[in-house]
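Risk register update: the risk of archive-format incompatibility is retired. Evidence:
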Amino acid sequence: MNFPKLSDGKRLEMLQPPQHPVQIVLDTDTYNEIDDQFAVVHALLSPNELSVEAIYAAPFHNNRSSSAEEGMEKSYDEIIKLLDFLDFTNDSFVFRGSRAFLTDEGTPEESEAARDMIQRAMSNTDGPLYVVAVGAITNVASAILIEPEIIKRIIVVWLGGNPLYWQHTREFNLAQDIHAARLVLDSGVPFVLLPTRGVVSHLLTTVSEMERYVQGQGQIGDYLVKIFKEYQQDHYGWSKVIWDISATAYLINSSWVPTEIVHSPILTDSVTWSFDNSRHLMRVATGVNRDAIFRDLFEKLKNAS
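Archived output:
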C-alpha cells in the first residue's frame, strides 16, 4: 500500500519531546493483565500534562479471554469500571475496538475505535494527536488502512516488541498481531517504540509498596491493590512489572523515558528485527527512571483521594 510521505524534517519535528498539554487517545487491552489499569489511571490523573480525548478497547487473546473479541469486550468493561471508580463521565469517551486481529496487511478491522481515531486526527487543529497504544496495535493499523492521511496528523507511542538488539521480538503485544505491527512500522507514521525486556521491564513494584502508597487512596487505589495482589498467589520475594505506565510517563516527562532516534526496523516473518538504514526515522526508548515514574503515580493517587 502507498502511504503519504513525510519528509525527514517534518518527522523529526513531530518526534521532538512532547509539549504540554498533550492531546492523547489511549488504546488499551485493559483486562489482559493489571498494568493497563495503572496506565489508564495515570493518564486520567494527569490533566495538567495530558488531555485524554478518548479510550479505546483493544483485542487480546490469552488465558483471560476465549477470543480476541471477548478480550476486547472484557477490556471495554474494565475501562468503564475504572472510570466509575474515578467518578469520570464516560459518555462518548470509551469505544470498542477491533473484534479480530488483522488477517493481512491490506485489510482493516472496522471498529468504533478506528473510526473515532480517524475523526479526531483529521479534525484536530491544535497540533498532532498522540495515539498511545499499550496492547496489540490492531486498532491503530486499521485506522491507518482506512484513512492513510492520519499519518500526517498523529504520533504513535507503542509499548511492544523487544529491544532492537534482542535475538527475537516475540513479545505479547507484537506477537498478537504481527500484520498490524509490521504495517505501522512500515507506514512511516511518526513512531515512538517502548521495548519490553531490559527497558520497560525495570518498572517493578511489590505488594508492600502497593500497600504503603496505593492502598487507601480512594476506591481506585484499593481496586489497584486488589488486582495486584490477586495476580499472583505467592507474594514472597515477588515483584510485578507495571509495563504500561512507561507510555504515560514518556508523555508526562520525556526525561523519565530516555529515547534515541533510529531507523525504523524491519519486522521479519521469523519475528526478529532486521535493519536498513535507508528507512524512515523513529524514536526508541533505551531506559526508564523507575523511581520518578512511580513517585509521580503515587503522588497523583494521593492527591486525588
